[in-house]
Design a protein that fits this description.
Number of helices: 19
CATH class of the largest domain: Alpha Beta
Pfam families: LytR_cpsA_psr
CATH topology of the largest domain: Aminopeptidase
Strand content: 5-15%
Strand order of the largest sheet: 9-4-1-2-3-10-11
Protein name: Cell envelope-related transcriptional attenuator domain-containing protein
CATH superfamily of the largest domain: LCP protein
Keywords: Membrane, Transmembrane, Transmembrane helix
Number of domains: 2
Shape: elongated
Family: Belongs to the LytR/CpsA/Psr (LCP) family.
Helix content: 40-55%
Amino acid sequence: MSSPSAGRRAPEADRSPGGAGGLLRTLALTLASALVWGVAHLAAGRRLAGGLLLGLWVVVAATVLVTVTVYRSSLVHLAVRPDELQGLAGGIIVLGVVWVAVVIRSYLVLRPVRQSISARTVGAAAVAVMCFAVAVPVAWGAHSTYVYRDALTSIFRTGSQNGRHIDTSDPWDGQPRVNVLLLGGDAAADRTGVRTDSMTLASVDTKTGDTVLLSLPRNLERFQMPPGPARDRFPYGFTGDGPENPGLLNEVYEYAENHPDVVPGVPKNRRGPELLKATIAGILGLRVDYYILVDMFGFADIVDAMGGVKIKVTQPIPYGLEGQVLQPGYRTLKGKEALWYGRSRTDSDDYVRMGRQKCLMRAIAQQADPQTVLTSFDKLAAAAKRTLSTDLPQELLPALIKLSGKVKDGAQINSLQFVPPLINSGNPDFALIRRLAAKAVSPEQAHATTSPNPSASPSPSGSSSLAANGSATAAPSPGASPGDSPSPSSSPSAESKPTSLAATCPS
């Protein structure tokens, strides 16, 4: 009489016999199981475990597929939420651990019983390679998510900014346009403080993405300061801080940082942006919602991280201290070369340089494709942390990314530069500047754009009245009055109309 267990074989007896054929079959099924979980277990007759693994794999694969297709737009919201990013990084790590465990276990359930030492060594090495192939992309994904989250939280603050609460259901709060001040600073190891040599207000239509870039020269003078301590100190216009600072627009940022009393209650590194936003709001007669400051020397790191930027140089541009020259033609500029291209004044002036800077920004935006970002992610994130500062809140980022997609997908981008002969930088016609700015952003509502803001408090002597959010009314400033007639050199003409940035940049 046979034993009840005589009809059952030990698990080892079910495995393939030793030898090269058995090892190759085991490794092939292990590889198949690494691609589709459960294949090895099903081949070994372990239907329950194999079915569970296969079902889990189907759920994970279906979730990923549906997310990147049906719910692709929701990924934008995930990409700018630090808490979700932290959870995503943890989920990636858990997935990687489970995946490696599946690979190892798949090999163990199929491993031949009788193997030579060399066969065991080959098998273990092959499984190690498979685990490594799984672990590397998983580790890269988790690391990149962490790096991205760290850069996100370092650059963008949470909570309401500028006294506003961000309603995620209506992030623009009914605003037809959002105005972001783009600043280029020149901080460096051999210079004290920050001078904003590049100042452009980007006014973006929140529905279409159509954008107008309003640029002010660094050497603009005789502008009025916003109401409050700054106006009290400079009642007749900004005059600077000593003979080395004659009162140019690019000095306002650093002046505020060095004189806390002109922006009371505002912490260091935010005093400069707040005073400059309010000042430019008064000059243009437009509200300034947010700012982004790019350190021009750190900007070179971003270009290097991208692998350079391709641009058409239209005339020889000297750069460096050893007589190098950027020759005309299509060039792929490295970081320092791009910096000199945007900043060089040799054989040109501030206004020509402003035009080159805009073309450089446009080229970088166009060439920052997903492949470039992915392959240089760590370098770009590190450079961004060193280079960028802003008061854009994290809560606004999903809407801003969606809006930037419209800008990149064919929205009209026009540029208006307040430079000679349109504007005399030393004695500007501020009434003309405000009229042209209003017409540029909203031709059909130019008057409404510069009408008094209900939230702005009255100001003595009819000067620009600024609200806390940077909005402004159009009012007399030094160098101009409501009754002034534009001088011949600054009369509205074809030059005063916004021009397409694509048309003005060589291609």
